């Protein structure tokens, strides 16, 4: 009766136990994202060493989908180069908008976001962290 | 439908008039608790709309043929009905698209002509964005200053703060009659009296009041009163502005075009009489006619009966939600101090998630900032859930809604799963 396609275990787990949440005082760059329709807020912090992301945090308030998606992002970006981060961002965006994309490994948490696609209103929630990342990377 | 105010309120007879209430969402009957966003429409209103298009459709105030006369008659009859419904003369009622357009009309037509640099406009912190943003735009153009009257922790307008603000001798006080988030009913008669003593004009945003309680603009005494049709059983795209006639006459036009003129020359034009002066172009005739039918429907049921019915639903919702330790309620606790809506939050679940899960049980509530980001910041939340009632909702629906909150707990855990 309660649809678990949207509220998959992994999403609820990330929501209840966000991975890297909180401000990053020595961040190299940060960006704020907001969904004006619902008021969800995200701040994304990246710390880079040269071209490589060595730390990433998020802060914010919002629904389980937006916060779980941000939590997954912090885990996925760690250790990537900025160019790799950009490619990942494009892949997640393609998955959420139903565009062709290279599939994620079977055990990748990001797969859990695919269920959101059936709920058009919630796609923006899942995208919030990733569009914030997109803006942040464009600004660099 | 036949409704006699003296007999008991027959909610089932009312429900039978609303085709959409037969709908199922998945395998559940629709429970529509998003009436503060927009109301559903009875067969009588839908029929009025169809009848107009199938029988009398023509442009108004022009043309000498039968249909043009019938359309004009239907449009002006609707104006008279809607005006009488709020205690106004037809000449004082301008049709607009909605409350937002009505307030923008006052902001641009009256505001640009009357506000100067340094003038004070008083708003409250419980205003909908539609009674904030137009004033910010006009303040930018004129140099006027905006002052916000806060609300108390119980969700009531801070009357001491209002009195202090009135000492600034504002030009205008623009205030909502009923808050769409807190449910608070503001004492607009008293506010108007005090504001007038301070020399200010008064605009009341009645979007959440006119559908739910008897409203008499003469008793309130305000200068402007704005409301929407779609929240009171009428179609979207039709609303109204009441304004004292002399103010309408003094105001320059809001928009220029057909209908609103008397004489047009190369260099300039003169204006039609009010209210036509403020209705440029072909108006929304069909929806105005349907709004007239909506007023007929509401009057047949009786606004006091509707208010009383909604109060019972609100009391029950407040009683049920108040017993839940994981739920926070916003706004006045006393149902007699508020209109038929309840905003609330789970302490550990975001309202979008709660609303999504309720939708899976066929229950439509709203979750979001409700176009009131200033209230949200003050409550220190980004969003709330809101259940809002209307004449066709039942006490059983309120109880089903309350029971369905357990589904939210099943997904997220009693305390958010932590």
> Helix proportion of residues of chain B, in percent?
25-40%
Q: Sheet with the most strands of chain A? A: 3 strands, antiparallel
Question: Could you tell me the number of beta strands of chain A?
Answer: 3
CATH class of the largest domain in chain B: Alpha Beta
Fraction of residues of chain A in helices? Answer: 40-55%
**Overall SS class of chain B:** alpha/beta
What's the assembly state of these chains? heterodimer
Total of helices of chain B: 14
Q: Which of globular, elongated, flat, extended, rod-shaped describes the shape of chain A?
A: globular
Radius of gyration of chain B, taken over Cα atoms and rounded to an integer in Å:
22 Å
- Give, in spatial order, the strands making up the sheet with the most strands of chain A: 1-2-3
Q: Count helical runs of chain A.
A: 4
Spatial strand sequence of the major β-sheet of chain B: 4-10-9-8-7-5-6
- The dominant shape of chain B is globular
- Biggest sheet overview of chain B: 7 strands, mixed
CATH architecture of chain A: Alpha-Beta Complex
Number of strands of chain B: 17
Estimate the strand proportion of chain A.
15-25%
CATH superfamily of the largest domain in chain B: Type I PLP-dependent aspartate aminotransferase-like (Major domain)
Written overview of the protein:
- Chain A is α+β, with helices and mostly antiparallel strands and 140 residues long.
- In chain A, helix 1 crosses helix 2.
- Chain A is built from four helices and three strands, in the order H-E-E-E-H-H-H.
- Chain A has a single domain, classed as Alpha-Beta Complex (Sufe protein. Chain: A), CATH 3.90.1010.
- Chain B is globular and about 70 Å long.
- Residues 2-6 of chain B have low confidence and may be disordered.
- Chain B is 39% helix and 16% strand.
- Chain B folds into two domains: 11-32 and 302-412, Aspartate Aminotransferase, domain 1 (Alpha-Beta Complex); 46-299, Type I PLP-dependent aspartate aminotransferase-like (Major domain) (Aspartate Aminotransferase, domain 2).
- Chain B has helices at 11-15, 43-56, 66-85, 99-114, 133-142, 159-166, 188-197, 217-220, 245-250, 285-301, 303-322, 351-359, 373-379, 395-412, and strands at 24-25, 28-29, 31-32, 93-96, 120-124, 145-149, 172-176, 201-205, 224-228, 239-243, 261-264, 269-271, 327-330, 341-346, 363-364, 366-368, 384-388.
- In chain B, the strands form five sheets. In chain B, strands 4-10-9-8-7-5-6 form a seven-stranded mixed β-sheet, with helices on both faces.
- Chain B is built from 14 helices and 17 strands.
- The interface between A and B is medium-sized, with 21 and 24 residues.
